[in-house]
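Bug #77: duplicate submission created two jobs. Keeping one. Sequence:
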Amino acid sequence: MSELNTNSPLPFHLDYMGKPLTTVGDASTFIFSLSEEEREQHHWRVAHMALSYALMEPAYLDTAALTLKTALTLHEIVQPWLGLPFLLNPVSSLLQGDRLATADRGAERGR
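Kept job's structure:
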């Protein structure tokens, strides 16, 4: 494999919330667009390090792309707003979930 640069394609297409990440440059730009606090999260530090290693040794590009995909997945999962209502009021969240389950059962009966 030849030397990588910002225009070098990633081994597979990644998309995060409508933002296509298709090149090494896209991946780097995305990582640096995160807040400093986000970049300090372990999964982003690992993704950044793997991308840096791939720039030094192109054989690591597949690994860098996989760590980037993992970081994107974890980032989406660990966004504070995803779990916040449950953490603030678990009883209310459970009741709301129960209402949803009840509504689903009612819809099934109406079929």
